Amino acid sequence: MATLSQQSCVPCRGDSPPVTEAEKAELMPSIPDWQIIDVEGTPQLQRVYRCKNFQQALALTVQVGEAAEAEGHHPALLTEWGRLTVTWWTHAIGGLHRNDFIMAAKTDEIAQAVLTQ
Ligand SMILES: C[C@H](O)[C@H](O)[C@H]1CNC2=NC(N)=NC(=O)C2=N1
Description:
The protein is of the alpha+beta class. The chain is 37% helix and 21% strand. It is built from three helices and four strands; from the N terminus they run αββαββα.
């Protein structure tokens, strides 16, 4: 199967299956710098990227936003001086879907390109 970052999101509906514990255990090693956090009972994937200033954080924000639009799957983005916090979860199911892991992997690739410029 293609690398996680090369996969595409599937349309997500309210009855789409959340990832199982076994799938989570299989997917997390592909995105080792991400954490699963709990926000009022909703599991979410989150990573903080350190940036050299606000402009770089903003550039990363825009590129992650464009990837989100291309896939029809959208993160929460908190842009601050020197860092960007990216949070993925699937609103339709109030939890984590495989799409979130795909988008986290894509986010890592984008950040690798933007933050080394
Ligand atoms: C109709 C549209 O595709 C849906 O509302 C999408 C938009 N982006 C989304 N993004 C995320 N993260 N979760 C969703 O459930 C979701 N739903």
